[in-house]
Amino acid sequence: MNHRWPIPGAGGEPTRSRGMGELEIPMSNLLRLLPLFVCVATLAAESFEGTIGGRRFFVPDIAKPVRGALINNAKDPAGGASNILYNNPDWRALAQEWNLAQFEWEGRFNKKEEGRPEMQRILDRLVEAAATLKKPEIAGAPVFLQGLSGCACDAAWLAAFTELHDRVAGVILSHEPDVHPPADIPGLYVCAGSDYMVGRGHPSLSLEGHIKHVTPRVKTGKPGTVVVSPGQTHHIPATDQRFAAIWMDEILRLRLPPGAPTAAVTLLPWKNQAAWLGRFTASKDKASPWNGGDRMTEIRIASPAVATATPDAWIWLPGERVAQVWKTYMETGTCPQPAYTIGKPAAVPAADKPAK
User: Fold this and answer.
1) Can you give the pTM of this predicted structure?
2) Separation of CA 121 from chain center
3) 318: three-class secondary structure by DSSP
4) N or C: which terminus of the chain carries fewer CB neighbours within 10 A?
């Protein structure tokens, strides 16, 4: 049995005449293609990409529970896309792996006390998304806050508000080590290896500046990771977000409770988890990809039991797997491809012993 499939004519309507206007396809072939048609239709129906509260909002799979939200605040200083991380492939891959909502947030304020309206707008947008998409778990979902340059200060300040604090899984501070999230929230400090702002009166943005501002916090038990984007300058984070995604993946593995959420989620504490520590020396390197900018050398990683037995300054790393990735990235300038785990840590080689 064959099926006559009308082919559109010049006017765009299916033709009625037989012959060149119709294509005969055996029914057996149509049945073979049916799963493909169903798959394509299902994929299109399950994802959401649109606007919530006037800003872009993305959910990879509407049919599955949404386990958290990635909130990106990174304006493009060149006047291009309003948020240069929203479509970043590494962030998008992480969102798809964990079925995280992703939305762009554009808020800017100069003091913590000015941030309450922005905080409320974030909460309102999550509530609106939950109602619009009929996904009640979004309203109380855990969040990652990300900020670039001055917006990193905003992300850290927002995490301190009581209404949002307990839901913040981590904060990513790109090109801004001077302001910190609360002591019980992990922070990732991304240093631009060739930040032009260092020469314009902002020495704290250098790798030496990151050491000065972050390692004392880690010494007192606060979770802070430092990573260098080789050869990159201020305001240009879009091409180097892979490590941030791997770091967030590990934080999710440590802090999300098991099971599919149906309402608000209580994050697990990061303390007493299998965190590791890293140590390095700040250097310069003319070779590619550092191109004369900051580079980490003399890199060591160790378990906390070993690291705390030495007087050296260390940075916090959320686990052995991430510690190995961090070490490889900082030594070679190339971040390994992520191997997302969702609750199962990947096998890693034995860690180096710290230098004596």
Assistant:
1) 0.80
2) 21
3) coil
4) C
SS3 6: strand
DSSP 117-180: HHHHHHHHHHHHHHHHHT-GGGTT--EEEEEETHHHHHHHHHHTSHHHHTTEEEEEEES--SS-
- 3-state SS assignment for residue 241: coil
322 burial via Cβ count (<10 Å: 0-12, 13-18, 19+): buried
Q: Starting from the edge strand earliest in sequence, which strands make up the sheet with 276-285, in order?
A: 293-302, 276-285, 315-317
- 160 class by beta-carbon count within 10 Å (0-12 exposed, 13-18 middle, 19+ buried): middle
Half-sphere exposure of 128 (CA within 13 A, CB side): 15
**pLDDT tens by residue, 163-222:** 999 999 999 988 776 788 888 999 999 888 777 677 676 777 788 888 888 888 888 888
Q: What domains lie within the chain, and their CATH numbers?
A: 50-254 (3.40.50.1820)
For 15-45, write each residue's pLDDT tens digit: 333 334 444 445 455 445 444 443 443 344 4
Does residue 54 register a pLDDT over 80? yes
